[in-house]
Amino acid sequence: MNVNRIFCIGRNYAEHIKELGNTPDEAFVLFMKPPSCVVPPGKTLTLPRGRGGVHHEAELVVALTGGGADIPEAQALSHISHITLGLDLTLRDLQSELKKKGWPWELAKAFDQAAPLGDWAPYRQQDLQALEFTFHVNGVLRQHARTSDMLFSVARQIHILSRTWALQDGDIIYTGTPSGVGPLMPGDRLLLESEGIGRFEWNCA
What we know:
Mean pLDDT: 93
Number of domains: 1
Largest sheet: 6 strands, mixed
Radius of gyration: 16 Å
Strand order of the largest sheet: 2-1-12-5-6-9
Helix content: 10-25%
CATH class: Alpha Beta
Low-confidence stretches: none
CATH topology: Fumarylacetoacetate hydrolase, domain 2
Structural class: mainly beta
CATH superfamily: Fumarylacetoacetase-like, C-terminal domain
């Protein structure tokens, strides 16, 4: 599947908001990554050097068939074609500096290989707010997500995005990460999995 645009939703799980010392808001944080950030399973992740900590953020990812502008929330899920899991990699120290200056996050979020992405599974109308997924590093559990804990459901995310962009075929949404984010190091073995979606692995270099 060709990825068109990558929309990333931030601050969508209360415990993750808390662990980063942020305050819950009435709106989620939105940023974007270029499609060139995508790294398929099995490919080596080359972590940036000399730029501070590189943190993992495990997420449910959905792919859209399109839908256009102003999609009603009640119709939003009908525009999903596939689902998978992905990692939003973040240069955390740099992100903190950018936040303090009030600057955009792209330098910390949109670097090369910043969007490892699993293989796509067809969306079969399963309840996207009743899924679980886990992320392990070197066999140790780092993140365990229940999508029922999302502050903004997937349908609501699609609705909100469509108020600004006419959504297109191939647009994908990283739907937010739960608590447990942390640093990655060269040599780490990564495993992201969910029953019914898949099992995806990467090695860090």
